[in-house]
Protein backbone atom coordinates (compact mmCIF):
# COMPACT_ATOMS: atom_id res chain seq x y z
CA UNK A 1 0.00 0.00 0.00
CA UNK A 2 1.46 3.39 -1.05
CA UNK A 3 0.89 6.23 1.38
CA UNK A 4 -0.58 9.35 -0.25
CA UNK A 5 1.36 12.16 1.42
CA UNK A 6 0.51 15.65 0.14
CA UNK A 7 4.07 16.82 0.90
CA UNK A 8 5.44 14.35 -1.67
CA UNK A 9 5.63 15.58 -5.26
CA UNK A 10 7.28 12.46 -6.71
CA UNK A 11 7.55 9.01 -5.18
CA UNK A 12 9.15 5.86 -6.58
CA UNK A 13 8.18 2.65 -4.76
CA UNK A 14 9.95 -0.58 -5.79
CA UNK A 15 10.13 0.62 -9.41
CA UNK A 16 11.59 -1.68 -12.06
CA UNK A 17 12.17 -0.76 -15.71
CA UNK A 18 13.34 -3.06 -18.51
CA UNK A 19 14.23 -2.66 -22.18
CA UNK A 20 13.76 -6.22 -23.32
CA UNK A 21 16.20 -8.19 -21.15
CA UNK A 22 18.15 -5.08 -20.14
CA UNK A 23 17.37 -4.03 -16.55
CA UNK A 24 17.44 -0.21 -16.78
CA UNK A 25 16.03 0.73 -13.36
CA UNK A 26 16.51 -1.59 -10.40
CA UNK A 27 14.33 -1.38 -7.30
CA UNK A 28 14.11 2.42 -7.24
CA UNK A 29 12.76 3.88 -4.00
CA UNK A 30 12.85 7.67 -3.89
CA UNK A 31 10.73 10.47 -2.49
CA UNK A 32 11.04 14.06 -3.68
CA UNK A 33 9.20 16.64 -1.60
CA UNK A 34 7.33 19.62 -2.98
CA UNK A 35 9.64 22.58 -3.47
CA UNK A 36 12.86 20.57 -3.39
CA UNK A 37 15.64 21.01 -5.93
CA UNK A 38 17.29 17.65 -6.50
CA UNK A 39 20.25 16.93 -8.77
CA UNK A 40 20.68 13.50 -10.32
CA UNK A 41 24.25 12.56 -11.24
CA UNK A 42 26.16 9.48 -12.31
CA UNK A 43 28.08 7.98 -15.23
CA UNK A 44 26.59 7.69 -18.72
CA UNK A 45 24.21 4.74 -18.98
CA UNK A 46 23.42 4.73 -15.27
CA UNK A 47 19.67 5.23 -15.77
CA UNK A 48 19.37 8.94 -14.97
CA UNK A 49 17.55 9.95 -18.14
CA UNK A 50 15.34 6.86 -17.99
CA UNK A 51 14.34 7.73 -14.42
CA UNK A 52 13.51 11.35 -15.20
CA UNK A 53 11.60 10.43 -18.38
CA UNK A 54 9.55 7.91 -16.40
CA UNK A 55 8.27 10.74 -14.21
CA UNK A 56 6.67 12.38 -17.25
CA UNK A 57 5.30 9.10 -18.56
CA UNK A 58 7.71 9.04 -21.50
CA UNK A 59 9.16 5.73 -20.30
CA UNK A 60 6.61 3.27 -18.84
CA UNK A 61 7.70 1.22 -15.84
CA UNK A 62 7.09 -2.51 -15.58
CA UNK A 63 6.82 -2.97 -11.81
CA UNK A 64 6.22 -0.90 -8.69
CA UNK A 65 4.49 2.44 -8.22
CA UNK A 66 5.45 5.88 -9.48
CA UNK A 67 3.32 8.53 -7.78
CA UNK A 68 3.45 12.00 -9.35
CA UNK A 69 1.42 14.81 -7.80
CA UNK A 70 -0.87 12.22 -6.21
CA UNK A 71 -1.40 10.07 -9.34
CA UNK A 72 0.02 6.58 -9.85
CA UNK A 73 1.52 6.41 -13.35
CA UNK A 74 1.45 2.61 -13.30
CA UNK A 75 -2.34 2.63 -12.84
CA UNK A 76 -3.96 2.17 -16.28
CA UNK A 77 -6.79 4.51 -15.21
CA UNK A 78 -4.38 7.43 -14.76
CA UNK A 79 -4.67 10.11 -17.47
CA UNK A 80 -1.03 10.83 -18.34
CA UNK A 81 -1.98 14.11 -20.02
CA UNK A 82 -3.17 15.45 -16.66
CA UNK A 83 0.26 14.68 -15.23
CA UNK A 84 2.03 16.45 -18.07
CA UNK A 85 -0.01 19.61 -17.53
CA UNK A 86 1.64 19.99 -14.12
CA UNK A 87 5.05 18.44 -14.79
CA UNK A 88 7.18 20.26 -17.35
CA UNK A 89 10.24 18.85 -19.10
CA UNK A 90 13.33 20.43 -20.64
CA UNK A 91 15.16 18.09 -23.01
CA UNK A 92 18.78 17.89 -24.14
CA UNK A 93 18.00 18.93 -27.71
CA UNK A 94 15.43 21.72 -27.19
CA UNK A 95 12.58 20.14 -29.27
CA UNK A 96 11.30 23.52 -30.45
CA UNK A 97 8.85 23.81 -33.34
CA UNK A 98 11.08 25.19 -36.10
CA UNK A 99 8.13 26.47 -38.15
CA UNK A 100 6.87 28.68 -35.32
CA UNK A 101 8.34 31.85 -33.87
CA UNK A 102 9.88 31.97 -30.40
CA UNK A 103 6.78 33.45 -28.80
CA UNK A 104 4.51 30.99 -30.63
CA UNK A 105 6.56 28.12 -29.21
CA UNK A 106 5.95 29.48 -25.71
CA UNK A 107 2.25 30.21 -26.26
CA UNK A 108 1.31 26.96 -27.98
CA UNK A 109 0.65 24.60 -25.03
CA UNK A 110 -1.31 27.13 -22.93
CA UNK A 111 -3.44 27.88 -26.00
CA UNK A 112 -4.18 24.26 -26.95
CA UNK A 113 -4.21 22.53 -23.57
CA UNK A 114 -5.43 25.22 -21.18
CA UNK A 115 -7.36 27.45 -23.62
CA UNK A 116 -5.81 30.61 -22.16
CA UNK A 117 -7.15 33.81 -23.80
CA UNK A 118 -4.69 35.10 -26.41
CA UNK A 119 -3.99 38.47 -24.78
CA UNK A 120 -3.28 36.88 -21.39
CA UNK A 121 -1.25 34.12 -23.01
CA UNK A 122 0.91 36.54 -24.99
CA UNK A 123 1.51 38.78 -21.97
CA UNK A 124 2.70 35.84 -19.85
CA UNK A 125 4.84 34.47 -22.70
CA UNK A 126 6.62 37.82 -23.00
CA UNK A 127 7.17 37.86 -19.22
CA UNK A 128 8.76 34.42 -19.42
CA UNK A 129 10.95 35.37 -22.37
CA UNK A 130 12.06 38.43 -20.43
CA UNK A 131 12.87 36.16 -17.48
CA UNK A 132 15.21 34.07 -19.65
CA UNK A 133 16.70 37.16 -21.33
CA UNK A 134 15.10 36.69 -24.74
CA UNK A 135 12.18 39.12 -24.93
CA UNK A 136 13.87 40.82 -27.89
CA UNK A 137 13.81 37.50 -29.78
CA UNK A 138 10.04 36.94 -29.44
CA UNK A 139 9.42 37.28 -33.18
CA UNK A 140 12.49 35.33 -34.28
CA UNK A 141 12.43 31.82 -35.67
CA UNK A 142 14.36 29.06 -33.84
CA UNK A 143 16.78 28.73 -36.78
CA UNK A 144 18.01 32.27 -36.01
CA UNK A 145 19.01 31.37 -32.44
CA UNK A 146 22.13 29.88 -30.91
CA UNK A 147 21.93 26.59 -29.02
CA UNK A 148 21.96 28.37 -25.67
CA UNK A 149 19.16 30.68 -26.77
CA UNK A 150 17.09 27.73 -28.00
CA UNK A 151 17.46 26.03 -24.63
CA UNK A 152 16.37 29.20 -22.83
CA UNK A 153 13.26 29.32 -25.07
CA UNK A 154 12.63 25.67 -24.18
CA UNK A 155 12.79 26.58 -20.49
CA UNK A 156 10.34 29.46 -20.99
CA UNK A 157 8.03 27.11 -22.89
CA UNK A 158 8.09 24.60 -20.02
CA UNK A 159 7.27 27.35 -17.51
CA UNK A 160 4.33 28.56 -19.61
CA UNK A 161 2.05 25.85 -18.22
CA UNK A 162 2.87 26.95 -14.64
CA UNK A 163 4.04 23.47 -13.63
CA UNK A 164 4.30 22.14 -10.09
CA UNK A 165 7.50 20.34 -11.07
CA UNK A 166 10.09 20.87 -13.77
CA UNK A 167 12.38 18.10 -15.05
CA UNK A 168 15.69 18.90 -16.74
CA UNK A 169 17.34 16.08 -18.72
CA UNK A 170 20.98 17.17 -19.11
CA UNK A 171 19.92 20.63 -20.33
CA UNK A 172 23.46 21.76 -21.21
CA UNK A 173 24.87 18.58 -22.79
CA UNK A 174 24.22 19.74 -26.38
CA UNK A 175 25.60 23.25 -25.84
CA UNK A 176 28.96 24.79 -26.67
CA UNK A 177 30.99 25.50 -23.50
CA UNK A 178 30.56 29.28 -23.69
CA UNK A 179 26.76 28.93 -23.70
CA UNK A 180 26.46 26.61 -20.70
CA UNK A 181 26.83 29.29 -18.02
CA UNK A 182 23.85 31.37 -19.19
CA UNK A 183 21.52 28.38 -19.20
CA UNK A 184 22.69 27.17 -15.79
CA UNK A 185 22.14 30.66 -14.31
CA UNK A 186 18.56 30.66 -15.62
CA UNK A 187 17.89 27.23 -14.09
CA UNK A 188 19.46 28.26 -10.79
CA UNK A 189 17.32 31.42 -10.63
CA UNK A 190 14.16 29.43 -11.36
CA UNK A 191 14.99 26.91 -8.64
CA UNK A 192 15.74 29.58 -6.04
CA UNK A 193 12.98 32.06 -6.87
CA UNK A 194 9.99 29.70 -6.90
CA UNK A 195 8.38 26.97 -4.81
CA UNK A 196 8.43 24.63 -7.79
CA UNK A 197 9.94 21.17 -7.49
CA UNK A 198 13.00 20.73 -9.73
CA UNK A 199 14.78 17.51 -10.69
CA UNK A 200 17.92 18.07 -12.76
CA UNK A 201 20.14 15.53 -14.53
CA UNK A 202 23.56 17.13 -14.97
CA UNK A 203 27.31 16.56 -15.15
CA UNK A 204 28.04 20.12 -13.98
CA UNK A 205 29.35 19.54 -10.45
CA UNK A 206 29.79 23.19 -9.43
CA UNK A 207 26.25 23.90 -10.53
CA UNK A 208 24.99 20.87 -8.58
CA UNK A 209 26.67 22.11 -5.42
CA UNK A 210 25.19 25.59 -5.79
CA UNK A 211 21.61 24.73 -6.75
CA UNK A 212 20.60 21.45 -5.11
CA UNK A 213 19.10 20.58 -1.73
CA UNK A 214 19.93 16.93 -2.40
CA UNK A 215 22.13 14.85 -4.66
CA UNK A 216 21.07 11.44 -5.95
CA UNK A 217 23.90 9.34 -7.37
CA UNK A 218 23.06 6.51 -9.78
CA UNK A 219 25.13 3.75 -11.36
CA UNK A 220 24.08 0.66 -13.31
CA UNK A 221 20.38 1.43 -12.90
CA UNK A 222 20.51 1.73 -9.11
CA UNK A 223 20.41 4.61 -6.63
CA UNK A 224 23.65 4.24 -4.70
CA UNK A 225 23.43 7.47 -2.71
CA UNK A 226 20.77 9.98 -1.71
CA UNK A 227 22.36 12.68 0.43
CA UNK A 228 22.30 16.34 1.36
CA UNK A 229 24.40 18.21 -1.17
CA UNK A 230 27.03 19.34 1.35
CA UNK A 231 27.39 15.80 2.73
CA UNK A 232 27.74 14.24 -0.70
CA UNK A 233 30.47 16.53 -1.98
CA UNK A 234 32.31 16.54 1.33
CA UNK A 235 32.58 12.75 1.38
CA UNK A 236 30.56 10.39 -0.80
CA UNK A 237 29.61 7.22 1.04
CA UNK A 238 30.34 4.76 -1.77
CA UNK A 239 33.61 4.11 -3.56
CA UNK A 240 31.76 4.31 -6.89
CA UNK A 241 30.49 7.82 -6.15
CA UNK A 242 33.91 8.98 -4.94
CA UNK A 243 35.51 7.72 -8.14
CA UNK A 244 32.90 9.50 -10.25
CA UNK A 245 33.28 12.84 -8.43
CA UNK A 246 37.08 12.67 -8.62
CA UNK A 247 36.96 11.89 -12.33
CA UNK A 248 34.50 14.66 -13.20
CA UNK A 249 36.21 17.32 -11.07
CA UNK A 250 39.65 16.50 -12.49
CA UNK A 251 38.54 16.74 -16.13
UniProtKB/TrEMBL annotation:
Signal sequence span per UniProt? none
In what residue span(s) does the ABC transporter domain sit? Answer: 10-245
Q: Does the keyword Cell membrane apply?
A: no
Record carries keyword Nucleotide-binding: yes
InterPro entries documented for this protein: AAA+_ATPase, ABC_ATPase_HisP-typ, ABC_transporter-like_ATP-bd, ABC_transporter-like_CS, MetN_ABC_transporter-like, P-loop_NTPase
**A molecular function (GO) term:** ATP binding
Report keywords, A-Z.
ATP-binding, Nucleotide-binding, Transport
Recorded superkingdom: Bacteria
The record ties this protein, via PROSITE patterns, to: ABC_TRANSPORTER_1, ABC_TRANSPORTER_2
SMART domains to which the protein is assigned, alphabetical: AAA
A Pfam family name for this chain?
A: ABC_tran
Name the protein family: Belongs to the ABC transporter superfamily.
Q: Which PANTHER family match?
A: AMINO ACID IMPORT ATP-BINDING PROTEIN, PHOSPHONATES IMPORT ATP-BINDING PROTEIN PHNC
Protein name per Swiss-Prot or TrEMBL: Amino acid ABC transporter ATP-binding protein, PAAT family
Amino acid sequence: MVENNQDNMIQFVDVEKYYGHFHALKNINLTIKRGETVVLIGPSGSGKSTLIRAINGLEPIQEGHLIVNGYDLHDPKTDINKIRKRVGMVFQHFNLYNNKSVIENVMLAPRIVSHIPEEENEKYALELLDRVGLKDKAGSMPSMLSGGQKQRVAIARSLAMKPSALLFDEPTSALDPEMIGDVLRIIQNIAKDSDMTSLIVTHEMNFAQNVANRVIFMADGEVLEDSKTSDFFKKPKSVRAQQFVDQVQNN
